[in-house]
Design a protein that fits this description.
The complex is a heterodimer of chains A (377) and B (439). Chain A is α/β, with parallel strands linked by helices and 377 residues long. Chain A has 15 helices and 8 strands. In chain A, the strands form 2 sheets. Chain A has a 4-stranded parallel sheet, with helices on both faces. A 4-stranded parallel sheet of chain A has the order 6-5-7-8, with helices on both faces. Chain A is globular, with a radius of gyration of 20 Å. In chain B, the strands form 2 sheets. A 4-stranded parallel sheet of chain B has the order 2-1-3-4, with helices on both faces. In chain B, 59% of the residues are buried. Chain B has a domain of 191 residues: Rossmann fold, CATH 3.40.50. In chain B, helix 4 runs antiparallel to helix 5, helix 4 packs across helix 6 and helix 15 runs parallel beside helix 17. The model of chain B has no long low-confidence stretch (mean pLDDT 95). Classes of the chains: A alpha/beta (377), B alpha/beta (439). The interface between A and B is large, with 49 and 45 residues.
């Protein structure tokens, strides 16, 4: 299969809550588990025989149902996902596992529990400081979740199940890493819009099939000549971002996104989980808890900053575009701090505020054009 | 006006002048025992803070989700809540100073949706208004906005910071988790302040905290009385008391004055509302800090009294068992999670938030509830639909509006007044008349 065919499949898979792969999975009588955030490890669901399905607002043409329960001060990403759930468009889920990722999602969790009432409702209390001193709490939370899932679904999640899940998800991580490696080329064979389509698709498709599609895609991309027709290379960072069209609006101005350190982008995958030390659940927990931290985490801003500057060098980026969903407080603090640290380091930095499902192409165009001029591109 | 014999930045002098002016106004009024006590407490706090700065004693910053008992366990260390200047400006100074600090933080790049008190705190740091901390000890509560501000302050000051993680749900496991983090924070405090943590001193602090708690518990009970014996605005001050004065004899004095004033006025059959109260409402979410006279207006014009609000509500379980170091830490953790207003209601499931509200409406005999939605309180606003449904099911009329509790520019006072007056006229009054007729 060619790059365009595979990207077409993945593009179709992320347009609406359901896709053909998901339908096929469910058609075989298999279950699906919804979750919001990468601090909820997918491997546990895979080990339990459920397909991990990351909640998104794609396909929601209105947030009205969510608006009836949440103020307009709640971010549009959350209100759209809640709207889908309240309208029954996520009824195919056999359960959800939510967490207090942020104040908005915490309240979305209340709505899932009290109004959507999924067959299984799990909740993780995830520490906000990714330090060794709090790791045992996080691990205990995962153990509790595993036990609750075993009881609810009348299954046993064995160590071998977990090892198999690690292997499957590591295979995805390796493929995503290879994809990102190709983006370091002078003429990357894939745009940011396309790469985000791929990483989003990974979150809503059965992993084995995704990995198989990735093999074809990578084989094609490795031989491709790539596209060096851009004015600047940028890294896109910030919070939730599952809309490739938004990146298209940026890239249409000649700013090629060479890496997306966002939720649904590279940050959600991380490095492969090692084969030791420790039992599999602990290794899963360690990989997730100590992932490149997102803005909900505290006492780790230097690590976030270092990751960004390291990637700047690796991907030969000219600047950073930071995007934040309007009303997102965690990223409001980090947005401020990143701006000043980048300024101090002499790294061009553009901050964009956005709403879910609104491309605001005109505004993005003007801001990105000005940014390019600022970078001398 | 100088503070402790020295000229300070205008923002602080305005506060100090305001406190002294109000004390002159209220000191002769026998019915203002509570107000006098808290004003005295504020002045004493400012004296202590600048005293520590002048003497070069260590100052530890903390946030409103975190009462200062642990910090007070170190001899000679001054605690400072990061919200202190904003609260004082709005209560006894000039809210325009707060507005200027909010603008300063936004101009520096902090998003406008961050809470105004947090923006003003960042503005205070940017303006060099706060005495330098040796370190900072925070709780990740009540909200994400506060966390954003804390991270910003860490970046601006470069000072050592430690965050205690307040988890979701507040069972015994969560209490143990927080208690353990408190124990682990002690070496951090010792290292950065250069002072030893003294368990005997900590015991005394906890005992003082308990005395304050007992008075507040009694005071909460007394405010159930019909007619409500004390003015509405005093309930908004309770959280400021806890955050600044927990474990401090000044806090106990304020709480005792609140209690005594309520008790004496009940004995004299006095009502907070001149001419008699007609309506009672529980004020939920956030007070109108920038205009506490607003509460006087409600009493005078609408004959409406607020016997209790979210900030004044003091849940049981506040008493700290002082028998061992472990029991003290556990008790303090329990207080932080299950008692402290905002932490109690804002970090767990919506049920805690709604249940407390309905309990308050019942216990305080409210005719209706006022959900004053501070625009930055996303954890509150994100639950408004469920909150409304629960109110409807319980048969408690609910008025909901959005405003900013520290920035008067968002919703003018006249708009809030009109909302409340209209709601009483259209919903509460007819309802009361109907139920009166039915009886």
């Amino acid at each position: 299969m060619s790059k365009n065919e595979i990207l077409g499949i993945m593009h179709s898979a992320i347009q609406k809550p359901r896709n053909a792969y998901l339908d096929e999975w469910m058609g075989e009588g298999r279950r699906v588990m919804g979750y919001y955030c990468s601090y909820v490890p997918e491997e546990i669901f895979t080990a339990a025989g459920l397909l991990p399905y990351r909640l998104r607002g794609a396909g929601s043409d209105s947030s009205a149902d969510g608006d009836a329960y949440m103020s307009a001060r709640i971010c549009t990403f959350v209100r759209h996902t809640v709207s889908l759930a309240l309208r029954g468009e996520l009824d195919f889920l056999d359960g959800v596992v939510l967490a207090q990722n942020c104040d908005h999602i915490r309240r979305a969790a209340d709505l899932f529990r009290k109004k959507v009432r999924p067959a299984f409702y799990g909740f993780l209390s995830i520490p906000r400081v990714p330090k060794e001193r709090l790791f045992d709490w996080y691990l205990a939370e995962l153990r509790r979740l595993k036990a609750e899932m075993e009881a609810h679904y009348s299954i046993a999640i064995t160590e071998q199940n977990l090892e198999d899940a690690i292997a499957l998800h590591n295979a995805t991580r390796q493929r995503i890493a290879r994809l990102y490696e190709l983006r370091k080329r002078e003429a990357p064979p894939i745009t940011g819009q396309e790469a985000l389509t791929v990483t989003v698709a990974a979150h809503v498709m059965p992993r084995a099939q995704f990995n198989s599609l990735m093999d074809h895609l990578l084989a094609d991309l490795e031989q491709a000549r790539g596209n060096g027709d851009y004015r600047a290379r940028v890294i896109v960072t910030g919070g939730v971002m599952d809309e490739p069209e938004y990146l298209a609006a940026i890239e249409n101005q000649g700013a090629l996104s060479v890496a997306e350190l966002v939720c649904f982008g590279q940050r959600s995958f991380g490095d492969p989980i090692g084969s030791r030390p420790g039992e599999p659940l602990e290794r899963i927990a360690r990989q997730r808890f100590f992932q490149v931290p997102c803005a909900r985490m505290v006492e780790c801003f230097d690590e976030q900053f270092s990751e960004l500057t390291r990637r700047m060098k690796e991907y030969k980026a000219d600047g950073i575009i930071f995007q934040r969903m309007k009303f997102c407080d965690p990223w409001a603090g980090d947005g401020h701090n990143l701006y000043w640290r980048m300024k101090e380091a002499g790294i061009p930095f553009l901050s964009l505020e956005r709403e879910y499902q609104v491309s605001a192409a005109g505004q993005v165009k003007t801001r990105v054009q000005a940014f390019m001029e600022q970078m001398g591109k | 006006m100088s503070i402790l014999g020295k000229e300070r930045k205008a923002d602080w002098e305005v506060v100090y002048e305001g406190v002294n002016g109000l004390m002159d106004l209220y000191s002769e009024d026998p019915d203002s025992k509570g107000m006098n006590a808290i004003l005295k407490g504020f002045r004493s706090y400012v004296d202590d803070l600048f005293g520590a700065a002048d003497e070069g004693r260590p100052i530890v910053w903390h946030n409103c989700g975190c009462t200062p008992e642990l910090i007070k366990g170190l001899e000679g260390v001054q605690s400072m809540p990061i919200e202190v200047l904003t609260v004082l400006q709005d209560l006894v100074g000039d809210a325009q100073y707060t507005v200027a600090l909010i603008d300063e933080a936004e101009a520096h790049g902090l998003a406008s949706e961050v809470c105004s008190i947090d923006k003003a705190a960042v503005g205070s740091v940017l303006s060099g208004l706060y005495p330098e901390p040796t370190c900072m000890l925070y709780h990740n509560t009540p909200c994400d906005s506060q966390i954003a501000a804390i991270k910003t302050m860490r970046a601006l000051t470069g000072k050592p910071m430690r965050m205690m993680d307040v988890p979701y749900l507040y069972g015994d496991r969560e209490v143990e988790y927080l208690a353990r983090q408190m124990a682990e924070s002690i070496p951090f405090l010792e290292e950065h302040t250069g002072r030893r943590f003294n368990w005997d001193r900590f015991r005394q602090v906890c005992e003082e905290s308990n005395r304050t708690a007992e008075y507040l518990r009694d005071w909460n009970d007394l405010r159930r009385h019909v007619p409500c014996p004390q003015v509405s605005k005093i309930v908004a001050l309770s959280t400021a008391l806890l955050v600044a004065f927990s474990g401090d004899p000044e806090g106990t004095a304020v709480a005792r004055a609140f209690r005594d004033e309520a008790r004496e006025r009940i004995e004299r059959s006095e009502s907070a509302v001149e001419g008699g109260e007609i309506y009672r409402a529980v004020w939920y979410q956030d007070p109108v800090w920038w205009d506490l006279q607003f509460y006087d207006w409600m009493e005078a014009e609408l004959k409406l009294v607020i016997p209790m609000d979210l900030f004044g509500y003091y849940a049981p379980e506040a008493l700290i068992d002082t028998s061992t170091p472990e029991s003290m830490l556990r008790g303090l953790a329990r207080k932080s999670l299950r008692v402290l207003p905002m932490s109690r209601q804002f970090k767990g499931p919506i049920d805690n938030f709604i249940d407390d509200y309905l309990k308050m409406c019942d216990e305080y005999g409210a005719d209706f509830g006022i959900f004053a939605g501070h625009v930055a309180c996303k954890h509150g606003l994100g639950g408004i639909g469920l909150f409304r449904e629960a109110s409807r099911e319980a048969g408690v009329p609910l008025l909901y509006f959005e405003f900013d509790m520290f920035d008067p520019r968002v919703t003018p006072v006249e708009t809030i007044q009109a909302e409340i007056a209209n709601f009483i006229e259209v919903v509460v009054k007819p309802g009361k008349e109907l139920s009166g007729a039915a009886r």
